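TASK: fixed-backbone design
INPUT:
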């Protein structure tokens, strides 16, 4: 069973525990339930310990013949992104309908708002990663999806040369999530898609030769 289908089935009966904001809701109903430490969970044939946001192993709540876990614990076990919109009190599992720009919180020495550098082929993207460093070099930056997104859509262009060995990695586990052998200058602005479910931080890096510029429009690169 695919991960998304599995989550869609079980999440309907999961206990919502996304934060203290939910406790302020006006339609809460008090119930009597029990912690059931005898229930064990397997994912794809392997036993897993479900954990809360602090890393503590948790047991399900048994109520009227059903077992309830926090959605966050299930999503972490399945590497499915989960987030909570406090405004609409909506739990979002998997990809979001609207993309979230990677520009929020982006920090790097090559970050710029200079229109001379944020403009590519006549369009001003307002904010960009513009690596025009000297000589043959590695080009790299960090992103922090914080386990709240399913997919990264990264727009990137090579100018005056090629980008080789482009890697998108989970920086906490050093796991390669996406690898592109080469992005050629003549390809223009390309979109690289990577599954980032369950990932807190991303390390994105590649190699370029002298005079090559790496252009990433931050406003149109996004998470979903």
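OUTPUT:
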């Amino acid at each position: 069973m695919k991960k998304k289908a599995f989550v869609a089935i079980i999440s309907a009966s999961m206990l919502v525990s996304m934060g203290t904001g939910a406790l302020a809701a006006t339609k809460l109903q008090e119930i009597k339930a029990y912690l059931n430490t005898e229930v064990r969970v397997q994912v794809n044939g392997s036993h897993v310990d479900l954990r809360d946001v602090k890393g503590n192993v948790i047991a399900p709540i048994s109520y009227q013949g059903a077992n309830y876990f926090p959605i966050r614990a299930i999503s972490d076990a399945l590497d499915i992104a989960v987030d909570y919109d406090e405004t609409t009190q909506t739990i979002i599992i998997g990809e979001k309908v609207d993309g979230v720009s990677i520009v929020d919180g982006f920090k790097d020495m090559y970050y710029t708002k200079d229109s001379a550098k944020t403009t590519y082929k006549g369009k001003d993207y307002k904010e960009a990663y513009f690596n025009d460093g000297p000589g043959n070099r590695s080009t790299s930056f960090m992103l922090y999806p914080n386990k709240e997104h399913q997919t990264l859509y990264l727009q990137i262009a090579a100018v005056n040369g090629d980008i080789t060995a482009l890697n998108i990695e989970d920086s906490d586990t050093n796991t390669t999530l996406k690898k592109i052998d080469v992005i050629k200058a003549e390809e223009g602005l390309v979109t690289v898609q990577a599954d980032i479910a369950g990932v807190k931080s991303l390390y994105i890096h590649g190699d370029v030769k002298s005079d090559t510029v790496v252009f990433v429009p931050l406003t149109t690169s996004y998470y979903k």
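COMMENT: Residues 100-223 form a domain with the Jelly Rolls fold (CATH 2.60.120.260).
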